[in-house]
Amino acid sequence: MAKIPSSDGSKNLSMNSNGGPEANTSLVVCFGEMLIDFVPTVSGVSLAEAPAFQKAPGGAPANVAVGISRLGGSSAFIGKVGDDEFGHMLSDILKQNKVNNSGMRFDQKARTALAFVTLRADGEREFMFFRNPSADMLLRESELDMNLIKQASIFHYGSISLIEEPCKSTHLAAMAIAKKSGSILSYDVNLRLPLWPSEDAARDGIMSIWNQADVIKVSEDEITFLTRGADPYDDNVVLNKLFHPNLKLLLVSEGPDGCRYYTQKFKGRVPGVKVKAVDTTGAGDAFVGGILSVLALDTNLYKDEKKLREALLFANACGALTVTKKGAIPAMPTRDEIQKILKSNS
Known about the structure:
- It is globular and about 50 Å long.
- Helix content is 31%, strand content 22%.
- The chain has helices spanning 60-70, 85-96, 146-150, 167-180, 199-207, 220-226, 235-242, 283-295, 305-322, 335-345, and strands at residues 27-31, 35-40, 53-58, 74-82, 100-107, 114-119, 125-130, 154-157, 184-188, 215-219, 249-253, 258-262, 267-271.
- Strands 5-4-1-8-9-10-11-12-13 form a nine-stranded mixed sheet, sandwiched between helices. Strands 3-2-6-7 form a four-stranded mixed sheet.
- The longest helix has 18 residues, at 305-322.
């Protein structure tokens, strides 16, 4: 049977007034966008065909923060939303999920971002974004909660916050503070091509901070995109084109098939956990939350292949359980649910 990575040290945290844990050594700070996803009430239709939409909280970094908290870990979110009903709803959702939201800011003029998302009958996701500009793009360096960033064991981010100023400069400044404070820098590419001005801009923007990350998570499709069509299953492609000298851990997510891992010393594959998929939204974020929740408690995890494989099986189970329910944040699993599914799969 698979051994579940322990969450010792994350259970007895005192809560602060924002519903998040007090300063501790295993805090994961997630930086970036939080928005409202509008999802069709029926599946397998295009946006144009959808009869009605249901609202759901979204945004990869926020999903990761909730995923970590749901597993008993300690997390915080830094980002900007509109000073509107949706923005305050999102802030409250983080608080309800025990994510420290003291780093959130509210923009008086710009609205909270909206995204219409559907899974078409052919299995492809279709996005339509309303952000011109939305509040998340307008976070300024002066609005950063410096002390919160300095407390981070892990500072986690994606690439959407690199697309527009002033958020791009704020993102770079936050990374610099975290790095100087000794945080592990964690990067989930999370490519959303429609948001970038062009394919080249996306490639250049995503790669512009590549060499600063300690941990990177990338999908097979993203490897193909970033390497201009190279084979994402070829270890040599991954190691020669994407692995950089300072990288501690490179993870390639393979959806239901599990994941691959590459470190400076070893590489391998951990199979997925078999489930019946209902909705794939948030699966990658749950996987990231799973691995970061273990890494925050054992920052040398990437040096021990046995421990790393156990942690990645745990993370795969997090991703798998998320696809058995609708939505991202509501579907994020608890540690007990992970233990059950790993027992039944062993």
